[in-house]
Structure of Proline--tRNA ligase:
Amino acid sequence: MSKNLTKREEDYSKWYNELVVKADLAENSGVRGCMVIKPYGYAIWEKMQAELDKKFKETGHSNAYFPLFVPKSMFEAEEKNAEGFAKECAIVTHYRLMNDPDNKGKLIVDPKAKLEEELIVRPTSEAIIWSTYKGWVQSYRDLPLLINQWANVVRWEMRTRLFLRTAEFLWQEGHTAHATKIEAIEESEKMMNVYADFVQNFMAIPVVKGLKTESERFAGAEETYCIEALMQDGKALQAGTSHFLGQNFAKAFDVKFANQEGKQEYVWGTSWGVSTRLMGALVMTHSDDNGLVLPPNLAPIQVVVVPIHKTDEQLEAISNQVNELVVKLRNLGVSVKYDDRTTHKPGFKFAEWELKGVPLRIAIGPKDLENGTYEVARRDILSKEVVSKEGIEIFIKNKLDQIQEELFTKAVDYRTNHTTEVNDFEEFKSVLESKGGFVSAHWDGTIETEENIKNLTKATIRCIPLDRVEETGSCVFTGNPSVGRVLFAKAY
Amino acid sequence: MSKNLTKREEDYSKWYNELVVKADLAENSGVRGCMVIKPYGYAIWEKMQAELDKKFKETGHSNAYFPLFVPKSMFEAEEKNAEGFAKECAIVTHYRLMNDPDNKGKLIVDPKAKLEEELIVRPTSEAIIWSTYKGWVQSYRDLPLLINQWANVVRWEMRTRLFLRTAEFLWQEGHTAHATKIEAIEESEKMMNVYADFVQNFMAIPVVKGLKTESERFAGAEETYCIEALMQDGKALQAGTSHFLGQNFAKAFDVKFANQEGKQEYVWGTSWGVSTRLMGALVMTHSDDNGLVLPPNLAPIQVVVVPIHKTDEQLEAISNQVNELVVKLRNLGVSVKYDDRTTHKPGFKFAEWELKGVPLRIAIGPKDLENGTYEVARRDILSKEVVSKEGIEIFIKNKLDQIQEELFTKAVDYRTNHTTEVNDFEEFKSVLESKGGFVSAHWDGTIETEENIKNLTKATIRCIPLDRVEETGSCVFTGNPSVGRVLFAKAY
């Protein structure tokens, strides 16, 4: 096991890329911009999926599945949506390969098999879903439609990075339709809160809930709610968005319903999504120069047990005891792996599980057998302690809860230390350069100012926090009046 | 609720198409050949996924995710695979749309954004996965690789039918790599058995396990194991396949390992899959002229409770009692819906849940309140009985188990009655025409005979049953020697 991980301080970006590959989360594939999510990485994604799916169902949503392809004309229907998304995408133009007559064993595209209308590989599914909803909604009794889809989507990104920006990625996309505006707005806010609850309590990543400015908003939306997280390098990462679509898609796809008075009205829509990008946020929030650090709620293996022995008799005695412990831990719902490979030394195993972020490591040697103890090591703070074997399963269970909590607290502290209120533009720039993070500043509310600041500093408005204090002030860039602070940051 | 379902006897195919749509399982989309899987249908698919996924993990497999796209050259690598699959498929040739300069609001494919190499939307993932495995396998210690993927795939079918044959469909595909031939063969057989166990015990569909003949085999495989089911119209349906790939893909993608003696060898492969096609098998095995019949193991709603009342007071009294029952049933793991809609009459509700195949319906009216009873109706045999409320939850739970078993028995009986041994070709044709089903006959083992029989009767060899008796005989078509019977049928 060669660790040789680049240090975060040296090159944060390189550290991230190396770690994702070395910890067996994902790797680049033979297809430009597309990744392979490896079993260990996928196991974490499955845990995220399971928890989110449960939350979606608890809030009344059902899953369904819509086509991968969207005919070009459907994209054009919602003009702003088309502007925002449809440009950089994978386009299917033909449906058959044939043997190359000039080159045996080679295949070429059959020129006769050209599609009448090109198909876009979905970059998002509003168009195909709203064109379907038209057939599903007649009366107010058919509403609300509360539907989610787990799917792959494709956006033809030129510069890609594992999990953070890939041509194909996995996500869920909720698409709901409602009889009233207020109900749709409530739904958008509810799902933002579901995301925030999940990311904070399950992934141990603190987020700011807020609204996007017009220029950062989803093209087809009236309002975009978001949750913004802060990575260890001081850059922000948008962890999830929830859009209030108004009647934009209903009008584009003619989705009307008869209200209680029998009058025809357009329905109100929302859409909301999180993606495998969250895997990137997970890595960049908690991990360190030794490798991954995983919150226990997401760790495929929560506890690894490593035997330390010289003789076969010792190993047998250790194994007998460990097998009992494993049963006790599993009964408490703890996922545990007993690493009794004889092909590798304990030091190698320690390094491997450290790299893979297993929250707790238990080592047991002949001394421990004599004393009735185990050595328990925490991955996050790299501490060790010797614990009596009596009741150790309860100790372990509690320790996992404690780690989950402390990882969150640590990330909150980091964010607190990297959120700075500034009142003039020189300070703005210097804070951004020196320590990064969120810069809380007054803004005059114009797209122009936002654009100027972005061009000068690369910082964008991450969000208008929902819990911001209404306070009058002067824009940090123009000095024009402002009604409250917004959060700027450089972002992924 | 308009049922008006075509009768199976009148037009089986029409009955199927109507039922899938009316029971809210799926519908055709605005994209040629692609379906929308509706929430009720998807809920059934999710139950299938959950059970299969559990079985895969119990047999040591992990999930992972590989790219949607396969570069054209990768397909060419395994020649037979390319012949078998790559022809009819969706081909991405461009990666950008642009505004049409001649037609405001319209989008056209940007001719400058042509891909250097075309990308095929995966019809199956052997090529992309084996090109990845090359990087994952160095030594025998890296083997076996036991990986599964849940994914969408695309095959450009000209004539499509909901679930049975669609351009895009959902499936799982297992892809494993082994150090020895025997281990790979064992894996192929193991996964065929996992499928058979699932389809029989969970879906209540009996299957024949067998081997495909050369002409029905997966192009890149040395041997294809399959499970074959029989539908109510006497046609067979291939419910799952498991391929022993030999070293074909290992050689095509140069996947070698150092064995225990340090010698380089090619690895041995398998792949295996089942798809949303199983939804079609489910509908066509159990359902009837009144609608869906679902085995309790797969029913999203196992029990529906319908109140029958004239006054609000009656409804309240019924609801109080039903709420207690619902809790008791849920504690037993029974999924139950209380349909207390006041917008619809009981008769409408009965018809709706009948159409949707809910296994048990409980009705309760004022008389039942007085007598301490419920009326319990079975969907599968359309029977009714009055049951005392004391301990009814246990009665219901047992009844569900009984229904699951009886559906399977009924399907086995149907298959037994529709499996005919024939010994001459006239009989072969007449059985096939009069009652269909499996025709068990001797075959001389040649592709030519198989082809001739297919051309004359539309029947193909569904499989060489694994449990067939070795018996010498004469081919039903040529009279040439044969070593045992094979199963012929017309098939989906």
Q: What stands out?
A: The first strand of chain A starts at residue 26 and ends at 28. Residues 392-417 of chain A form the longest helix (26 residues). The two ends of chain A are 30 Å apart (CA to CA). Residues 301-399 of chain A form a domain with the Rossmann fold fold (CATH 3.40.50.800).
